Amino acid sequence: MFYKLRVYLRELKKSSEQIKISLKEKKCDDLYYLSKLAKCCHILDKGCYTVPFEKKHSLSIYNEAKRYIEKIDYEKNRNDSCYNWCVKKIKRYEEMQEEMSSPNLYVEPVVYKDSSVFDDFINSFISVRRFSDKTISNDIIKQSIKTAQSASSSCFRQTPRCYAIKSFDLIKKMTPSIAGLTGFSNGVPLLFCITSDLRSYDCVDRDLAYIDSTLFSQNLVLSLRAKNIYSVFLNFQQASKTDISIIKEYLKIPEYEKIIIFIACGYSDYISEKPQRLDFEKVGKIYE
Q1: b/e map 46-61, b = 16+ CB within 10 Å
Q2: Who has the most CB within 10 Å: 4, 91, 185, 234?
Q3: Continuous segment of H or E residues that includes residue 257
Q4: How far is CA 104 from each of CA 50, 108, 259, rounded to the nearest angstrom?
Q5: What percent of the chain shows pLDDT beyond 70?
Q6: Which residues contact 187 (CB under 8 A, 6 or more apart)?
Q7: What residue spans of 149-207 are helical by DSSP H?
């Protein structure tokens, strides 16, 4: 009973710390403003695809987006894909205020003829704790992180941050602070630390940090799996305040980022048998 109470109090304290980050004065750099801008432009974009289009709808969001644009350093972000997408959406919103009819902005959907190939690929995913010593190239890491960014994120905030650790010595130093980083047969060739930038969430949105980062993480491991790299998720939610501080110090993670999860990755010559999932009837319902 006392153990459960202690755990509940610890979790309550963690939540209060996250709320403080939401309430305190933000460290307003370009990345913060880009996240806020992307959220605004996401809302404008939804409005532009609404039929019929309502002129002056979301005008307050448009004005907010214009304020964020002014705060972002243009020279540093002129080549950023998200920044340019936002500029394009603001311009399109402005043009649609002058047009007499609602334009057709839709494009043809991508149609896949054989979905079974994708289903088989998804079903091939399995958690692995036995890796070979084969090195994972930086190009593969970058490509996989880029693919992970295609995951859905709440209001297009794009708050997940990804730290890739290849240094054996650094992983060894971090191991005592990560409870799940044990039981590996040949060590861990690559370790990902997934965090979330909490500055773009309001207090009522604080749980979205877990959802956004989890969607990002799932895309990441699937992209790695497509390159014949296996992985396993490592829980970090039970970490102590000391462990969190140690990891943040090693990786230079700012205070406004919350560590969500770790992922151990590597090539593998041997994998275990895939555990069987629950039957459909126990997890799914269809209403007609």
Answers
A1: ebbeeeebeeeebeeb
A2: 234
A3: strand 257-266
A4: 10, 12, 42
A5: 89
A6: 131, 133, 168, 171
A7: 168-174
Provide CATH code, domain 116-266: 3.40.109.10
- The reported pLDDT for the residue numbered 233 is 96
Q: CA of 179: how far to CAs of 157, 236, 243, 246, in Å? A: 30, 7, 10, 13
Q: Are 196 and 256 a contacting pair, CB within 8 Å?
A: no
State the amino acid at position 208 in one-letter form.
L
Write the pLDDT tens digit of every residue in 165-224.
999 999 999 999 998 898 887 889 999 999 999 999 988 888 999 999 999 999 999 999
Asked if 89 and 41 count as a contact pair (C-beta separation under 8 A), the reply is yes
Nearby residues of 90 by Cβ (< 8 Å), 6 or more positions away: 41, 44, 62, 65, 66, 69
Of 17, 96, 112, nearest to 54 (Cα)?
Answer: 96
Tell me the C-alpha to C-alpha distance, in Å, between residue 206 and each of 17, 21, 145, 202, 236.
Answer: 11, 10, 23, 6, 17
Secondary structure of 18-39 as H, E, C letters? HHHHHHCCCCCCHHHHHHHHHH
- Domain map (residue ranges) of the chain: 2-98, 116-266
Separation between Cα atoms, residue 279 and residue 285, nearest integer Å: 12
Q: Are 140 and 147 in contact (CB under 8 A)?
A: no
Structure tokens at 20: 């403080």
